[in-house]
């Protein structure tokens, strides 16, 4: 009897496990017609919360469900592959070309047309990032650029005029970097000039006259101008003490704290994303820095545009709601509302507002005409006009069907050169091979 | 009666059997099929025969990843065993404080691997880390553990010893089971402490050593979390990273979820399965000559 009971218990356990396991296969909340789900988006500040409030006010009947957290490629692609995608995905614009080529996101030309979204209002570089094969796959959101941030104290102490620090004359820059770097007893005390390798290789290549990806989405990594750019930047690091110590020292920076690398004098000059100006202004407002544009070898300001975009995944259950959402979130008036909310919230905390930089030119014009005003913060008062000026001059690499693989290929190549295991020619030749194979795998020969 | 007991046994086993078939054997078979296809998760798999397996032998990163993984295993396993045994021997002499020290030694094993990786990134920093600071007190200039290609893998081995407490506790259990009269007899025969260890302790705990060698070897060949978090987990850590910490499972993961090459990643997984199986078979063969089980004739 007891044995029979055990058998029944075992069978029941298996059946129960099966029932519990299959519980997710029935109709879910996401299937309801009034639900809208997002992935990769968070609500960290008023730029997000105020815009979401605008949407909720405009569409009160929609149950918006935001799964907060950074974009996770594995999670997203698994969701699409399993037929359970979110209605919207918020991801780095660099990745969109690859998702479009693989059919993981839907073209949204019709959606944008029906909601009256004018892509001509957007910066060309941002539109380029979200277009693939003649169709548009995403709506650009924020826009970041890179600027040179020069630490005046150490630079002046070495007898260099901060106004003369620039990326135009590479031999002068190498000389300045050598003078500004400080090492004691085998350890770094100060980095003179950080070229921000390997992630800034596209910027240095562009400054040398070439883009790492061509209009067809294929890599141009073994171009002599890329080789020259990589050699120059890797030599800058080598001359200051070598990659191993350089990177270990850089990794130790308290980048987002009051004891950041500029406040402590651990760094003299670096090209950095524009959002960092807000960080500096809030955490170490008294630090004495000069903000300057990154320039190409002819002296013309140049910078790479970065940021995210909204896209609608393949198989999204509510594409119409998704279309309403992305059109609302990126509209000029919504951005202005968000900028006002952000400025007021920062003011309540006694912190300066450094503007809201979007890929939407019309929105930026309204924000900087009506919301932003200089507040006597040296960092922002210098930086904001420079960032605004650079927005129009920024470039963006064309989308590639193998975008992630291409980035990995050139970053690995740059690192192999930095660690001394390959010459720039060898490393970039290998990277070109890897990149070609990756593109071929997706689009065929 | 026997039939009823049989049915009862199957009843108890059923949950495990169903779980094994659904969540282990099933996915393994699917992965075997996928290894013969091109599959990017978004379009149906396309059969390509043995192409993925052929590519394994021409892809230089496979050789690099295998080398890195074997390098780590060859350093990690002996050190883990030796240090675990040394700590267990000390614990055995700890007397009434043994319980306290056992707990303290085991605590690090419970640290989440991601937290451990984040902590060791700071400790191992070649310019400002605590480990080099301590080495500096003794006049040594420590290397750049996290950024110098020559020292990245030794640094990871050093970090892996953080969990040596788990092995030490297993050895402690084995050591307490060695009959004291064997030591007494050895001492009467004039055996030195080393000879007692070599000829009494080691043979008596050889079964446990064998177990820990097998388990640690398999775990080392699948090393992933700490190295991934430290060096490849996000764009900040991945940028500026060459292949010196590219372990086999990290490369497999990159191919699967970075390049969406599920077919190739499946072939990589089966290759690793084969490597682990071969190494385990060799270890089993060698153990027949070296491992002594109580009650078995030698």
Average pLDDT reading of chain A = 91
User: How are helices and strands ordered from N to C of chain A?
Assistant: HEHEHEHHHEEEEHHEEHHHEHEEHHHHHH
Number of strands of chain A: 12
Radius of gyration of chain B: 23 Å
Q: How can the largest sheet of chain B be summarized?
A: 2 strands, antiparallel
Mean pLDDT of chain B: 91
Distance between the termini of chain A: 69 Å
Structural class of chain B: mainly alpha
Q: What separation lies between the terminal Cα atoms of chain B?
A: 39 Å
Largest sheet of chain A: 5 strands, mixed
Task: Give the fraction of residues assigned to helices of chain A.
Answer: 40-55%
CATH architecture grouping of chain B: Orthogonal Bundle
User: Rg of chain A to the nearest angstrom?
Assistant: 25 Å
CATH architecture title of the largest domain in chain A: 3-Layer(aba) Sandwich
Q: Write out the CATH superfamily name of chain B.
A: MetI-like
CATH class value of chain B: Mainly Alpha
User: Quick one: CATH class of the largest domain in chain A?
Assistant: Alpha Beta
The residue fraction in helices of chain B comes out at over 70%
Q: Helix count of chain A, per DSSP?
A: 18
Biased composition (Basic and acidic residues) (chain A): 426-445
Region (Disordered) (chain A): 421-445
Organism (chain A): Actinokineospora iranica
Protein name (chain A): Carbohydrate ABC transporter substrate-binding protein, CUT1 family
């Amino acid at each position: 009897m007891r044995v029979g009971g055990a058998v029944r218990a075992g069978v029941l356990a298996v059946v129960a496990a099966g029932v519990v396991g299959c519980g997710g296969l029935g109709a879910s909340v996401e299937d309801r017609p009034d639900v809208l789900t997002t992935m990769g988006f968070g609500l960290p500040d008023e730029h997000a919360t105020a815009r979401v409030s605008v949407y909720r006010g405009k569409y009160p009947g929609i149950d918006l469900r935001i799964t907060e957290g950074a974009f996770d490629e594995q999670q997203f692609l698994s969701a699409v592959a399993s037929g359970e995608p979110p209605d919207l995905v918020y991801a780095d614009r660099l990745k969109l070309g690859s998702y479009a080529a693989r059919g993981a996101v839907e073209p949204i030309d019709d959606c944008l047309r029906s909601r009256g979204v004018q892509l001509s209002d957007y910066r060309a570089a941002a539109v380029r990032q979200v277009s693939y094969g003649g169709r548009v796959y995403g709506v650009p959101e924020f826009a970041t650029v890179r600027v040179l941030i020069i630490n005046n104290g150490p630079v002046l102490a070495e007898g260099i005029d901060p106004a003369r620090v620039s990326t135009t004359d590479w031999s002068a820059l190498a000389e300045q970097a050598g003078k500004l770097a400080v090492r004691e007893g085998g350890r770094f005390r100060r980095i003179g000039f950080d070229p921000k390798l390997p992630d800034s290789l596209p910027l240095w290549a562009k400054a040398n006259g070439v883009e790492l990806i061509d209009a067809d989405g294929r890599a141009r990594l073994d171009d002599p101008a890329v080789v020259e750019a990589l050699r120059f930047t890797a030599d800058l690091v080598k001359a200051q003490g070598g990659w191993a110590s350089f990177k270990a020292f850089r990794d130790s920076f308290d980048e987002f704290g009051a004891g950041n690398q500029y406040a402590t004098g651990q760094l003299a000059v670096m090209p950095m994303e524009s959002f960092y100006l807000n960080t500096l202004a809030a955490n170490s407002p008294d630090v004495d820095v000069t903000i300057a544009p990154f320039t190409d070898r002819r002296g013309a300001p140049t910078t790479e545009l970065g940021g995210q975009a909204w896209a609608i995944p393949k198989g999204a259950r509510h594409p119409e709601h998704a279309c309403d959402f992305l059109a609302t979130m990126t509209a000029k008036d919504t951005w202005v509302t968000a900028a006002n909310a952000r400025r007021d919230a920062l003011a309540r905390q006694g912190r300066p507002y450094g503007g809201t930089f979007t890929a939407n030119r019309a929105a930026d014009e309204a924000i900087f005409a009506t919301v932003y005003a200089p507040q006597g913060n040296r960092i922002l008062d210098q930086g904001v006009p420079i960032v605004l000026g650079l927005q129009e001059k920024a470039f963006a690499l064309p989308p590639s069907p193998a975008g992630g693989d291409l980035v990995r290929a050139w970053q690995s190549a740059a690192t192999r050169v930095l660690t001394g295991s390959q010459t720039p020619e060898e490393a970039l030749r290998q990277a070109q091979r890897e990149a070609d194979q990756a593109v071929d795998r997706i689009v065929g020969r | 009666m026997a039939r009823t007991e049989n049915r009862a046994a199957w009843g108890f086993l059923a949950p495990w059997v169903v779980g094994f078939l659904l969540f282990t054997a099933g996915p393994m078979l699917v992965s075997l099929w996928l290894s013969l296809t091109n599959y990017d998760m978004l379009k149906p798999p396309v059969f390509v025969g043995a192409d993925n397996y052929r590519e394994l032998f021409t892809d230089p990163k496979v050789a690099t990843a295998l080398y890195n993984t074997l390098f780590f295993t060859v350093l990690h396993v002996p050190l883990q065993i030796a240090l675990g045994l040394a700590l267990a021997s000390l614990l055995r002499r700890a007397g009434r404080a043994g319980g306290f020290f056992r707990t303290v030694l085991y605590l690090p094993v419970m640290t989440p691997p991601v937290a451990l990786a984040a902590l060791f990134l700071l400790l191992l920093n070649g310019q400002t880390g605590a480990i080099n600071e301590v080495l500096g007190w003794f006049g040594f200039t420590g290397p750049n553990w996290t950024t110098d290609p020559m020292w990245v893998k030794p640094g990871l081995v050093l970090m892996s010893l953080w969990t040596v407490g788990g092995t030490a506790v297993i050895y402690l259990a084995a050591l307490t089971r060695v009959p004291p009269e064997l030591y007494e007899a050895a001492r009467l025969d004039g055996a030195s402490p080393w000879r007692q260890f070599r000829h009494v302790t080691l043979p008596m705990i050889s079964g446990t050593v064998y177990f820990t060698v097998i388990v640690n070897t398999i775990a080392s060949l699948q090393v992933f979390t700490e190295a991934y978090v430290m060096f490849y987990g996000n764009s900040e850590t991945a940028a500026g990273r060459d292949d010196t910490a590219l372990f086999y499972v990290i490369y497999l993961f990159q191919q699967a979820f970075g390049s969406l090459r599920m077919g190739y990643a499946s072939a990589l997984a089966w290759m690793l399965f084969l490597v682990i199986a071969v190494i385990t078979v060799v270890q089993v063969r060698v153990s027949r000559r070296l491992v002594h089980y109580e009650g078995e004739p030698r």
